[in-house]
Amino acid sequence: MAAEPGPAEPGPAEPGPAEPGPAERGPAERGPAERGPAERGPAEPGPAEPGPAGSGTCPGPGPLLVACALGIEQLALRSRSRSRTRSRSRAADPVTVLRTGMGPDSAHRAVTAALQADGTLRGAAVVASGFCAGLAPGMHPGDLVVADETRGPLGATPCTATAALVTALTRAVPGRTVHTGPLIGSDHVVRGQERAALRATGAIAVDMESAATLHAALAAGPRPVAAVRVVVDAPEHELVRIGTVRGGISAFRVLRAVLPAFLEWHRSLLLPRR
Predict the structure, then answer these.
(1) Distances in whole angstroms, Cα of residue 31 to Cα of each of 19, 38, 50, 118
(2) The whole model's pTM is what?
């Protein structure tokens, strides 16, 4: 008698259909990272992309060197620099206020040394600042002069982003007149008929250091440069000694207020130009 067959033993499992790959699945079945930008919803992030090396913060505008000749000019400029450093929660803007000493030769030597190739100020933007003598009729002590170029024995030096600097100064020192034009250099204090002769060249103001400062700055390498001066005496308001008359005091107060405008101009150099 033949044996009755028992229940059939299961055989090896047959493979099911292969899982579809990312290209074979529909957009709803693929993860956000697998879908293209057009298939992702507005709230779904794409795959992470590596950021730039470093700390991840935006780069700053670099160092700024403000050069002046006199101790009283340095005092005025530094007073605002110190107050900003104490009051700001983030790191202070990298500003150096350099006293060069009087005269074009002193200014040229001091700026050249400060911008030496192995120094921290190597790539700094440079602003020549301090007091000046106005040449144009109608100027008053405390008026501001923004040079569109400086002129000296070595030629003319065009200044950078003059319009942006004028705008920044108008905000920083409201109510003060801002004059724009050529700033000419001299190796001595100018008065009387010599002032009129310089005015005839088209210059609107004269000082002893700005032309030499900017020439030295560009000789050390390409960089933004500017010159901003405060009128301390004018054709109708000549003075004998800084600090002895009302005009000198007015000019000092204005000079104390200009540093924020320098910083605004400096930061604006990073913005794209239209």
Answers:
(1) 15, 13, 20, 52
(2) 0.73
